[in-house]
Amino acid sequence: MKFLTTTALALLASAGIAGACEMTLRSSDTHPDGYPTVEGVKAMAAEVEEKTDGRICIEVFPSSQLGEEKDTIEQTQFGVIDMVRASFGSFNDIVPVTQLMSLPYLFRSVDHMHNVMDGPIGEEIAAGFEENDLIALAYYDGGSRSFYNSQKPIQSIEDLEGMKFRVMQNDVFVDMMSALGANATPMPYGEVYSSIQTGVIDGAENNFPSYDSSGHAEVAKYFTLDEHLMVPELVAMSKSTWEKLSPEDQQIIREAARNSATVQRELWAEQERASEEKVVEAGAEIIRDIDKTPFIEAMAPVYEKYVTTPESQDLVKRIQETE
């Protein structure tokens, strides 16, 4: 286990609201202040403080002040930190079912993802976290990833043939590109701009805010809205902290967390719209309304390779059948 740095401990000790509350819960986020996930947990904190008459406060530490995601997840499991907001991808080694959420085209749309995660399947997945000393409180929106490139508008699966795309260092994404007829080139995120600019790769894949903030829209102006990947984000609490709360306070926190998911999702949608408008004004071309069916059908060998147990096959089937 990696323990908190001296700086992080000082930050915890100096939290301004600590003295005014009977219990102060420390929540970690890697994103900067003002980011939708940070503001979502702040909304949760405001509701909890109001409904407990100030007895319980939540102090949010953004910008990786308490550590990176995997470190802070571990610290939350041990009760060193009370809460953490992290991507499902960071839980893959702890809660194996989260790996399924990285399957390409698993979710048909953002609404489909929300309906799955907010329903019985989300509750079932939450049980896997509790077995690992974490209480899943709310599922946030991490956005959807789509393809962008410097060469041409991608309007069909045939247009991907032979193209070179940067993907994260992940076997699923490498196999996804192969199944689509393209070539995967794993590389650090910071190298993508120059690699597109110099023709080392044709493009990459990400969401609108990243496409905008990274400057990739300047060198890869064709953005195809295929939404091949939607990975949920999670707000989780340490089980040891949770068990210190009364049933009444647990209910308050759970309701506040779920309400905060609505706030976070709205803020994320606003950020996506703003980034989309910005890149379009700068000359990016957005390719919409493509027929996703051939893309989805091409994933059959990927699913065959990674969805191997009866339990995972059943879960994928139920996710796909959810309206």
UniProtKB/TrEMBL annotation:
PROSITE patterns, A to Z: PROKAR_LIPOPROTEIN (PS51257)
Localisation: Periplasm
First and last residue of the signal peptide: 1-20
Keywords: Periplasm, Signal
Chief location category: periplasm
Superkingdom to which the source organism belongs: Bacteria
Pfam family membership, one: DctP
Listed CDD domains: PBP2_TRAP_SBP_like_3
UniProt-listed PANTHER family: DICARBOXYLATE-BINDING PERIPLASMIC PROTEIN, PTHR33376
Protein name (record): TRAP transporter substrate-binding protein
Lineage start: Bacteria, Pseudomonadati, Pseudomonadota, Alphaproteobacteria, Rhodobacterales
